[in-house]
Design goal:
By secondary structure, the chain is mainly alpha-helical. The N and C termini lie far apart (74 Å). The mean pLDDT is 78.
């Protein structure tokens, strides 16, 4: 009887080791080919602090605050191209960071 119990315990231990190391292998698959993403497109944008191109749809009209802007792009244009704006409190070149509208 002891011998039978020993074989059962030994078989169970072997099965547990096999489950741990062989039975639950994660199969590695080939990664998909790289596709152009938003990150690639973002590299074509001007860096913060650079002037925006003059052919944009915005113009300096005296607005100064984030609450007066209609989009993030408009706020960035005003910050980089218009005088006396008050949209970058910490001076890092990113306008309206606390505005939750965009």
């Amino acid at each position: 009887m002891k011998r039978l119990l020993f074989y059962v315990v030994f078989a169970y231990a072997c099965w547990m080791v096999w489950q741990r190391f062989e039975g639950n292998k994660v199969f590695v698959t080939q990664s998909p080919q790289w596709k152009q993403t938003v990150i690639d497109e973002a590299s074509k944008l001007p860096a913060y602090g650079d002037r925006m191109p003059a052919a944009t749809q915005f113009k300096c009209d005296g607005r100064q605050y984030c609450s007066q802007m209609h989009s993030r792009a408009e706020a960035e244009f005003f910050l980089h191209n218009c005088p006396n704006v008050k949209m970058d409190g910490d001076g890092d070149g990113i306008p309206c960071e606390n505005d939750s509208r965009w």
